Amino acid sequence: MDFTRKDYPEGFLFGASTSSYQIEGHDFGGAGPTHWDTFAATPGNVVRAEHGGIACDHYHRFEADLDLVADAGFDVYRFSTSWARVMPDGIGQPNEEGLDFYDRLVDAMLERDLKPAATLYHWEMPSALADKGGWTNRDVASWFAEFTEIVSRRLGDRLWSVAPINEPWCVGWMGHFLGLHAPGLRDIRATARAMHHVLLAHGRSIEVMRSLGQDKLGAVFNFEWAEPADDSPEAQRAAETFDGYLNRFFVEGVFRGRYPETVLEGFAPHLPEGYQDDFPLITQKLDWCGLNYYTRKLCAPTDGPWPHQTEVEGPLPKTLMGWEIYPDGLYYSLKRLHEYAGDMPLYVTENGLASPDVIEGGKVDDQPRIDYLNQHFAAARRAMEDGVPLNGYFVWSLMDNYEWALGYEKRFGLVHVDFDSLERTPKASYHALKRALS
Ligand code: FCB
Questions:
Q1: Which residue minimizes the CA distance to atom 10 of ligand 1?
Q2: Between the CA of residue 426 and those of 77, 134, 308, 349, 421, what are the distances in Å?
């Protein structure tokens, strides 16, 4: 890497991120079915209908995986707790085996001097609750509060930080408007309700954890930098709309207690009646805020119904996901998040790329990852020089894993996983980061 720890202020935290369904293996340990299992089992949704049944088998290999995190010199391990593992039916009887797993996992982090940064929900809605409408049902806020309380009572004394929900936009928009993620809906009313209920559930969850005396509570948002595809006012407007429903909706909800006009244009008839009354709960004070950043989007107008906008292919070099590599977008996004979040500490909670790994003689060469990370870490340092209170940076991801609708094909790991033998091989980027952090 072209930086070391010395290029950062004392106490700056480096970390690696993962999520439960993507690595654990949901067939194990009494976890209940989730909407990702059924989404994947429905033809056409996921590459080769792949699912998280075994994934990286982290459930059985977490000790060795945490050794990799610690050996690289990371300070923080960002992981998530699967709702359906903790509560197979989503509410009611918890699964002791599942709670024991997270108990051992957190202890194993502490034994290695890693700070456990938990996300309560990284996308696996228990099927029993999906049957009741999942995020479109307002009751999801109380179901989620119940789950929060179970996790908090069991792990809260040892968690370094907690965020209730990973990337509200993906939960709401990808799952209910684009149909690209579970539950695979394409319905504007379901989307508007899901997006509001995600924030409502976030608020209830924060309230529950505060009442149990927990601190270091935050939120994790994903931003994509929105730019117009050309100089026309129509493209400008398309970019504003995209920016509204992707970037601004959730931060305005949480930090300002309102939704952007550009989004209300499409959502107003569909949001739950009296939704404004929920803002006092949604805007509760947070202790930190996380940004997941990967790319930008070029936006163009369309004739269709709201949002009257589409994405066009940009000219920049792209990752294997087809995402343009645009480090400036991280710089702009951090500055912007800082405007919303004020003085609270910010973290990059995810950043990384899928790249073609070259495997030769037991070594995995992933130079594109090293380059990408160098560029993005540099963009973040620029934001820090401008006064953005960035306190840490966590790479997505520790290891290759289940990349949702793209199955096991897109590899985001610092550590290569052979999905037949499940053998782990640290890539060149892992070794480079280890040198930078030692
Ligand atoms: C983020 C998700 C994460 C992973 C990366 C590539 O949106 O939080 O689970 O899929 O993208």
A1: 403
A2: 17, 38, 44, 21, 15
The number of angstroms, rounded, from the C-alpha of 185 to the middle of its chain's C-alpha atoms is: 20
Indicate if ligand 1 lies below 6 Å from the C-beta of 349: no
Between CA 54 and CA 15 the distance in angstroms is 24
Active site residue 167: yes
381 CA to centre of ligand 1 in angstroms: 23
Residues 50, 167, 227, 403: which is the catalytic one? 167
| Angle formed at CA 375 by CA 387 and CA 225, multiple of 5 degrees | 70
pLDDT in tens, the chain (438 residues): 999 999 999 999 999 999 999 999 999 999 999 999 999 999 999 999 999 999 999 999 999 999 999 999 999 999 999 999 999 999 999 999 999 999 999 999 999 999 999 999 999 999 999 999 999 999 999 999 999 999 999 999 999 999 999 999 999 999 999 999 999 999 999 999 999 999 999 999 999 999 999 999 999 999 999 999 999 999 999 999 999 999 999 999 999 999 999 999 999 999 999 999 999 999 999 999 999 999 999 999 999 999 999 999 999 999 999 999 999 999 999 999 999 999 999 999 999 999 999 999 999 999 999 999 999 999 999 999 999 999 999 999 999 999 999 999 999 999 999 999 999 999 999 999 999 999
- Gap from CA of 222 to ligand 1 centroid (Å): 9
Whether 97 is a known active-site residue: answer no
Residue 77 dihedral angles phi and psi, to the nearest 5°: -120, 115
Q: pTM of this prediction?
A: 0.98
* CB 225 less than 6 A from any atom of ligand 1: no
Atom of ligand 1 nearest to the CA of 410: 6
Residue 292's nearest CA partner among 222, 245, 226, 339 is 222
End-to-end CA separation in angstroms for the chain: 12
Distance 406 CA to ligand 1 centre (A): 11
